[in-house]
Amino acid sequence: MIQRYDAVIIGAGGAGLMAALQFPPTAKIAVISKLYPTRSHTGTAQGGIGAALGNMEEDHWEWHMFDTVKGSDYLADQDAVEILCREAIETVYDLEHWGLPFSRTPEGKIAQRPFGGHTREYGKAPVKRSCYAADRTGHMILQTCYQQCIKNQVHFYNEYQVLDVLVGKGRCAGVVAMCLATGELHTFHAKAVIFASGGCGKFYRVTSNAHSLTGDGMWVAFRRGIPLEDMEFFQFHPTGIYKMGILLSEAARGEGGILRNKDGERFMQRYAPTLLDLAPRDMVSRAMYQEIREGRGIDGRNYLHLDLTHLGEEVLDKKLPDITEFVRTYLGVEPKTQLIPIQPTAHYAMGGIPTDLDGRVILDEKNTPIAGLYAAGEVACVSVHGANRLGTNSLVDILVFGRRSGRHAAEFIKENDWAPLADNPDSYARELVARAREGSGKERAADIRDNLQDEMMEKASVFRDARGLTAMREKLGELQERYLNVKVEDKGDRYNTELLEVLELGGMLDLAEVLVESALTRQESRGAHFREDFPKRDDTQWLKHTLAYAGPRGVEFRYKPVTITRFMPQERKY
Amino acid sequence: MQVTLRIKRFNPEKDKEPWWGEYKVEAEPTDRLLDALNHVKWYIDGSLTYRRSCAHGICGSDAMQINGKNALACKVLLKNLGQTVTVEPLRAFRVIKDLLVDMEVFFEKYRQVKPYLITHSPQPEKERLQSPEDRERYDDTTKCILCAACTTSCPSFWPNPDYVGPAAIVNAHRFIFDSRDEGTEDRLRILGAADGVWRCRTIFNCVEACPRDINVTRAIGEVKKALLYRKV
After folding, report:
1. Which architecture does CATH list for A1-233+350-423+545-574?
2. pLDDT per residue over A18-36, tens digit each?
3. What is the DSSP string of B40-63?
């Protein structure tokens, strides 16, 4: 079945919805999402959106820009970061104008709190930059953007899974997606396609990510020859609930929470004397892994404590109500009086589909765009986060670049026609589905996925080395082989979620390979990518972005220069 | 511990009627019911179908009847459920497959109450001011995750699917009591109609069902008062 639209947007989180709101009523657009929009993972973001409003203390976007660049370990493209930090301010005001229920100061202004890595005066001390709505900021953003889409009568295709993107001769012609309700493949012939499909944390065992986050936009693009940028940089958030990975916002530390080892010591004193527990996430996670390695985990095991006991009832009830509830529900722990077991959790993909400043997908280090193809949000890599992302910057990223890509696409569709569709445009997607249904059945998808998640956690997470990564490369080869023998037992067409999970698994295996190969190639440590065999940052050889391509003999690499405008790379100390 | 799940299965492509599937699962007492469902799907019967995403009570995908009460499968721990757990889809929505129900009707009702900020006065350059007290006034109803646990637990909704339902009223309340909103008249008109708030018989099932602990009945009561006294 073929449908024609001016533009389609893949994903209904903050980036996708924001992009959808940029089109005039005369444009025929649709948002395609594998979930109902309000189920998107944007809704689980907690701590806040970073913008230099200066409502509670002096602040400037230039300070925010410096913090972001330094936080990225100098890998972020500074022209993109400038846009991020400048446009953050008007973005937050827009959200408020749309009704977002921010928490307020006594004067009635949007309330702001400190957050990891955000400072005043270029690193002097923490600054209150995170604009928040209790610890439900993401929920409010998602709801508010969706409400605006209802007001604007945006058309949604809910529970459609994208399986292929149609690109050729430097142009995009649309996407192919499976309607989960019927099992039918739909070809969406469009002048512009915007990918806003989120991250890929599900290839790790302990992750904050939803079950649905299997990197769909990334593997769909990668399989069609589009490169993936900086995939080796995957952030582990310091405070996930032990074993479950459920996120406890950095806001807890922003409000004064402290990390402690088995001796009750505030160990961050030794690793980041100025910012302590509000040092950037990659540094805190490494510190935690180090403490655990050296035997100072609780009971000698692989977790530590988050101490909120000194914050007081008022703060916990009013500013951190959701995470207080998570801790009570899932751990049976009372945060007012007890210490909370936490460990680093796989959280955020700094890498993704490379784009320029307007969200146009680019093919190479010269920023050659593919006409009509865009990406925004976690699926994309502009790069604003470089080697490590600061907290609160993802909510800014998705909205600023969701808006920019939507605006550019809205202009593009006015001036351009549809690219021609090949005959049988859905043939690749049909093939994918057929293979999944007709496997030998000797392997079970869940076993392969379990193996993938456990091994990635062990060999390609916070600490990496050549030995572990090479072993992971071999393991992935084995898992790819075994995957060919998976068979979908559910023979039905309607809501065949078993088939969906098998297709997602195939994609995750591809992405894991890109991450591992990228990590093996980058022989230095920077931001979230830490090589025990190459523990120093090496700007001479490695101040550049990785571009990974699907080649005939595996992953192939090219490199892209980093755009540096205001801040020369320095040693990264806090 | 070993837990037996009795799950109401129904695949209209194969089954004439729903049937009960029984599955024994080895699990930790601190596992979520969702973890047990995943175990059944991943290791025993891949055709078991349900919605889920965030797995920690925020996205609202996995509302279902668990031992006869509406709850989110990812927020209920096995240790609180007993040796045998009965799992069924939400009541009063058409069952599409197993635990997956038709949510279109639910979202249609949500859209009916104009769930977006309505303002006529000009926008300030920066934020509209709102005092902490004004912000507190509607805090409870901002928490709604549209999971449908309340609406499908409501005995007034079961026989009368035209009732706009608790969730829609909660989301209208969120705007009616937001000091910045200027669409009160519009919304009160919609909610004052026959299938609006007056269907509520103050039964309180919604309050029990809500996984976000929203005091739904109180919110509905406040809207009723606003309708009666035209004061917000």
Report:
1. 3-Layer(bba) Sandwich (3.50)
2. 999 999 999 999 999 999 9
3. IIIII-TT-----SSSSSSS-TTE
